[in-house]
Amino acid sequence: MVYEKQNQLYEGKAKKVYATQDPEVVIVSxxxxxxxxxGQKKGTITGKGxxxxxxxxxxxxxxxxxxxxxxxxxxxxxxxxxxxxxxIVPLEVIIRNISAGSFAKRYGVxxxxxxxxxxxxxxxxxDDLGDPLINDYHALALKLATREELETIQKYAFGVxxxxxxxxxxxxxxxxxxxxxxxxxxxxxLVLADEIxxxxxxxxxxxxxxxxxxxxxxxxxxxxxxxxxxxxxxxMGETL
Length: 240
Ligand code: TMP
Ligand code: ASP
Description:
Layout: E1 8-11, E2 15-19, E3 25-30, E4 33-36, E5 41-44, H1 48-65, E6 72-75, E7 80-84, E8 87-88, E9 91-98, H2 101-107, E10 114-124, E11 133-134, H3 136-141, H4 147-169, E12 173-184, E13 190-193, E14 201-205, H5 215-218, H6 224-236
Antiparallel strand pairs: 1-2, 2-3, 3-7, 4-5, 6-7, 8-12, 9-10, 9-12, 10-11, 12-13, 12-14
Bound molecules: thymidine-5'-phosphate and aspartic acid.
Thymidine-5'-phosphate (TMP) is lined by residues 94, 100-103, 131, 177-179, 200-202.
């Protein structure tokens, strides 16, 4: 199937979305733009768009094989991918295996504590409110999802974690935490959407604990480009 890129439907902080001739399919185009702290910090990570596109697609193909439905259809070029058109469930679903970031800050603990079991939390995806933390009862009250949808989201999110943790360990990376988004295709089926990349995951080298993700940009550590390239290099060593 050849998907034709038509009018732009949406531009986000890291991606643009275009219509195609098929109303059920859109094209996602990944940018090199990087933002943090709800867009207050802005910059560029050269080559990020292509890496995030190819890494997301690589991982989504693997997740599909592992039984997690995703929006992925077909990689079109370095930066662009055809995906199923979804209505995004306005929740950021965050899984953590090791303390870091807002968890460490909120609960006053150091980064790097390995949890006995992964945690899950939700943020209400709303830039005006700064994506506030929300619990499942609040999500139900706000009609962001049904009880059944929340249960499916939770099951898929832990499934993604189980798969990704083992897979990334195989390429020398500890999966610290990550954020997922889910969407509903036209018949209401829930699928994994958005991206899985160093923008949306914390990835630490298992030996050196060096940060191989967007925290290099968020925290002005330098070497963001090299970190993204290193993750990609390790990922591509594994063929699919
Ligand atoms: P946090 O520790 O800042 O809450 O972030 C948890 C994970 O979620 C981390 O891997 C980065 C990712 N994340 C996003 O993908 N988008 C966001 O807007 C935020 C705040 C975090
Ligand atoms: N991408 C998000 C923003 O700009 C936050 C982040 O990833 O830290 O707000």
